[in-house]
Amino acid sequence: MTELAALEDPRIREVNERHGDDHGVNLSMLRALAKRLKTQQELARQLWETADSTAKLLAILICRPKAFERDELDVMLRGARTPKVHDWLVNYVVKKNPHSEELRLAWFADPDPVVASAGWALTTERVARKPEGLDLAGLLDVIEVEMRDVPARLQWAMNHCLAQIGIEHAEHRARAIGIGERLEVLKDYPTPAGCTSPFAPTWINEMVRRQHDR
User: Fold this and answer.
1) To which H or E segment does residue 213 belong?
2) Which among 56, 52, 98, 47 is positioned nearest to 77, based on CA atoms?
3) Can you state the percent helix, strand and coil of the chain, rounding each to 5?
4) Residue 111 and residue 155: Cα distance in Å, rounded?
5) Rounded to an integer, what is the distance from CA 163 to the centroid of its chain?
6) What φ, ψ does residue 25 adopt, rounded to 5°?
7) Which one of 11, 32, 78, 159 is most buried, by most CB atoms within 10 A?
């Protein structure tokens, strides 16, 4: 914890706080520390128990994702309230855990929109990698009805799922683009030059174009 405190940079914290995060450590430096520590599951658990977001991020980098029990991950997810910790936990730990599908189903319709956003993120992963058994038309039904009015974190996750369905599944592409055009979610999101807009119709068309150009 002393070493993490020494890495704190007020300028980085200021930038991160604009996005809802409460840490001020350069992530490259944090990854370097994790590489030196290597995998240490018990230390990861101790770091996670702190109230410090930087410690939680380090815990994610040095843990063994498959070592966590289902209920343990559920408690961790519900305690991960800042965007970076939440995203890293889902992408670096839960997706690699044998209980990921069970947790996806449990979180998907959770009344807490932050928890539900994790369920949608795991669903988006399945849309891309293992769509067998998913009701893609049903997902589009839910997105069409709910996405415009849900809180921002959940909206972002649902929008990603919408785009992924359109990108990966040609039979649903026209409908996915149509939903995006009607709802206009993230249509005016500021997008840096050279980056793809998160507006679903633009995102879908750009990724499909790249696939065809390969």
Assistant:
1) helix 200-213
2) 56
3) 70, 0, 25
4) 14
5) 14
6) -110, 135
7) 159
**Integer Cα distance of 17 and 51 in angstroms:** 16
Alpha carbon distance 10, 7 (integer Å): 10
Q: CA–CA separation, 53 vs 82, rounded Å?
A: 8
Report how far Cα 214 is from the mean position of its chain's Cα atoms.
27
Q: How many residues does the chain have?
A: 214
User: Is residue 25 classed as helix, strand or coil in its secondary structure?
Assistant: strand
For residue 203, with 0-12 CB atoms within 10 Å meaning exposed, 13-18 middle and 19 or more buried, which class applies?
Answer: buried
| pLDDT (tens digit per residue) in 123-173 | 999 999 999 999 999 999 999 999 999 999 999 999 999 999 999 999 999
Angle between helical axes of 41-48 and 53-62 (0-180°, round to 10):
160
Q: Assign residue 196 a region (left: φ > 0; alpha: ψ between -120 and 50; beta: otherwise).
A: beta
Instruction: Measure the CA–CA gap between 51 and 28, rounded to whole angstroms.
Output: 22
Give dist(CA 159, CA 148) in Å, integer. Answer: 9
Give the pLDDT confidence of 7-64 residue by residue, as tens digits. 999 999 999 998 899 999 999 999 999 999 999 999 999 999 998 999 999 999 999 9
DSSP letters of 167-184? HH-GGGHHHHHHHHHHH-
Token output for 17: 């706080």
Q: How far apart are CA 79 and CA 73, in angstroms?
A: 10
